[in-house]
Known about the structure:
CATH class of chain A: Mainly Alpha
CATH class of the largest domain in chain B: Mainly Beta
CATH architecture of the largest domain in chain B: Beta Barrel
Largest interface: A-B, 53 and 60 residues
Strand order of the largest sheet of chain B: 1-2-5-4-3-12
Order of helices and strands of chain B: HHHEEEEEEEEEEEE
CATH architecture of chain A: Orthogonal Bundle
Helix content of chain A: over 70%
Largest sheet of chain A: none
Number of domains of chain B: 2
Structural class of chain A: mainly alpha
Number of strands of chain B: 12
CATH topology of the largest domain in chain B: Thrombin, subunit H
Number of domains of chain A: 1
Order of helices and strands of chain A: HHHHHHH
Largest sheet of chain B: 6 strands, antiparallel, barrel
Strand content of chain A: under 5%
Distance between the termini of chain B: 71 Å
Structural class of chain B: alpha+beta
CATH superfamily of the largest domain in chain B: Rod shape-determining protein MreC, domain 1
Number of helices of chain A: 7
Shape of chain B: elongated
Oligomer: heterodimer
Number of strands of chain A: 0
Amino acid sequence: MTPSLWHRIDLLARQLTPSMLTLILVIISVVPIRILNFSTVVPLLPLMSVYHWAIFRPRLLPAYAVFLIGILQDILTGSPIGVNSFVFLLVYGAVLSQKRFFTGKSFFILWLGFSLIAAGASGLNWLAVSILNVSVVEFHTAVFQYLLTLGFFPAVAWVFLCWQRTFLRLD
Amino acid sequence: MKRSSQSAHRLFQPIRGLSQRFAYISLVVSAVGLMVLGKIDVLMMDSFRAQVTDAVAPVLDALSRPAESFSRAVVQVRQLSHLREENARLRQNDARLMQWQTAARNLEAENKILRDLLNFKPGPDPSFITARIIADTGGAFAHSLIINAGARDGVIKGQAAMTGHGLAGRVAGVGSRSARLLLITDLNSRIPVLVGDSRTRAILAGNNSDRLKLVHLPSGESVNPGDRVVTSGHGGALSPGLPVGIVTMVDENGIVVRPFVLRPRLEYIRLLDFGLDGIVKGPLPQIGHRNSKGGRVGKPKP
C-alpha cells in the first residue's frame, strides 16, 4: 500500500511540473533585474512554456491551467485582466490543432513554428490592448520584445526538454 | 470483456473530445468576458488584482532581493572601468553644485523673509513612506511596478511616487502589504503640469514609451526645448511643484518630454503623502472614518 501511495504522489508531483514551471516563469519574468534596459522589456517566458508543453505534454498543462496562468500574468504585469489568458489559450489551441505538424519535427522547425505563433500572439496582444485602451498603443517595444523572446526560446526550450527527459518520461 | 471496454472507449472518445472542446471554448469566452468586465467594473477588478498581488508579494519580495544584489554587482563591475572619468566629472559637478548651494541658501533665506512679510501659509509638509520595488512588469503594454508596502503601511491610492530625481508615478492599486504604481510613462497616465518659467498649463501624457507627450496646451503659449516640467497640483491629485522632466523636442508632431526618472534604475521609491484626497473623490464630504482601502477611492456618487 505504502509504495503505491508514494508512487502516486511522485507521479502527481511530476505531472504538476509543466503547470508549476509555467507559473514560476510568470513570477520570474516580473522580478526586477536592472541590466541596461532589460527591465523595460523582458522575453515572454510564459508564452514559451505554454507553446512547449502544448506540443509535448498537453495533458499535463490543461486549458484551465493556461487560463489561470494567463490571469496571473495579467495581474502582475498590470495589463487588462483577460488579455494574456485569451492570447495563451489561442496559442494553446493553435498548437493543439497543428499537433500532427509538430510531432517528431526537428528543433529548428519547432523554433520556426514558435516564431510564427509568437508573432501572432504579440500581434493579438497589441490589438487587444489597443482596443481596450481605445487608442493605438506604441508597438516598437512589442517588436523588440518579440525578437528578444525568439532569441531566448532555444535556451528555455532546452531546459524544458531536459526536464521532460528526466522527470516526465511516462506519458 | 476486452471488446466491450474497447467499444465503450470508442463510444466515449468523441464525447470526451466534445466536452474538452466545449471547456476550451468556454475558457476563451471567459477570458474575453473578463476583459469586458475589466472595462465595466474597474473597481472590482482593481481589488481582485490587489488581492492576488498581495498573495504573491512575499514570493516576489524574496526573489527580488538576490536579483537586486546581482544587478548591483553588474553595475559595480561596469562602473569600475569608468572610475577615473567619473571622479573628474564629479569633482567638476561638486564645484558647480557648491555655487548652487550658496545660491539656494540665499534664496531660501530671502524666501523665508518674504513669506513672513506676506503671512504666507505654506502647504502641508508631506510624510514619506519608503518602499522597495519587488516587481517590474517589464511588459511592452503596461508600465507599472509592484512595491512592498501597502495599506497597512499607510499607502493610499493616488499618492505620488518619487525618487531623488523626480516623479516616477502614482499609486494605482493598494493591497494590504503591496501596492501597484502606474508609471508616468504608462499609456493611462495623465498628469496636470506646468511648463517652463512661463508656467504654461498642460497635461503630460504617457504613451508606453520612455518619452512623454505634452497635450492640451492653451493656444498661443509657446514651449521651448530645455523647459522644466513640474506638477501643477490641479485637480488635487498630486502636490504642486514635483519635478517631472524636461522638454527635449518641439515640432509639429508634438512636444516631447524626457522624464527625470529612468525606469531601469528604479530600486526604491518614496511615496509622498500630502494629505490630499486623491484623484477620484465623491463630491459629498465623507462622514465618519472609513478605511483607506475602499473608502477614499470610491466612485463619485451621483
